[in-house]
Amino acid sequence: MMHLQLARKTWPGADSAVLADIELHVAAGEFVCLVGPSGCGKSTLLALIAGLDAEFSGTLRASADLGLLFQTPRLMPWLTVRENLALVLPQGRCDAHALELLAAMGLDAATLDRYPGQLSGGQQRRVALARAFAARPRLLLLDEPFVSLDAPVAQRLRELLLAQWQAERPGVLFVTHDLDEALTLADRIVFLGGAPAQVVLEWRCGVLRPRSPAAVAGQRAVLLGAHPDLLAGRRGCGPAQESADG
Ligand SMILES: Nc1ncnc2c1ncn2[C@@H]1O[C@H](COP(=O)(O)OP(=O)(O)OP(=O)(O)O)[C@@H](O)[C@H]1O
């Protein structure tokens, strides 16, 4: 599905690499979260995997059948919701699957003819989530798609994402700096850290879904009990940071 063997990624003009010696894979149907502190290189890594940046040394094998979802929904403001969805579809118009996706995201038919500017932030993310699944990608890359949303809205969107992933089973690589979000979603968590960033830990999440907040808190305690230094000295790793940093 996706296999990256990254030797180095160095930004032009930089003295040192931002990422080095990273091996990362996502199996078919697997949900992998990539966690690391702000600025460590998560988005940079995702852009390499998405094929948006070819300036690195190493090898990448990734499905060309890609869906992408970013921090901001990136809907075209001059196109209606229907036209935004049609944009990613080979036939250039909304098919039954796309309409079902919109409905599954809790958006009614009237939404189809609205422009993104006429929707709330949460509704725009729902449209972007539907669009990411609309072309039935085999590999879905998500870069902090639910950041800066109210907690209940973000939680609802996570549920919608999981439901759709379980229905269609693409391989997923989901970037987040929020450990609890990763523990809620992932089959496996890959932790990045250091400078240049490398994989510091891989953690398999065995708890059945849906995972309650109590189950997530329990997993966090087990993880940080086994790896007490995992979040030490880091910024921006969500609620777990406070407990880890004491
Ligand atoms: N186009 C660019 N040119 C030069 N440096 C860049 C560029 N894009 C990102 N960087 C640098 O690369 C490093 C990693 O950035 P990146 O956005 O990948 O981090 P991140 O882990 O995704 O952060 P966050 O969680 O805050 O989104 C940062 O130091 C950033 O300043």
UniProtKB/TrEMBL annotation:
The keyword Nucleotide-binding applies. One of its GO terms (molecular function) is ATP binding. Pfam families: ABC_tran. Residues 2-219 form the ABC transporter domain. Keywords: ATP-binding, Nucleotide-binding, Transport. Gene3D superfamilies: P-loop containing nucleotide triphosphate hydrolases (3.40.50.300). It comes from the Bacteria. The keyword Transport applies. Belongs to the ABC transporter superfamily. This is NitT/TauT family transport system ATP-binding protein. It comes from Plasticicumulans acidivorans.
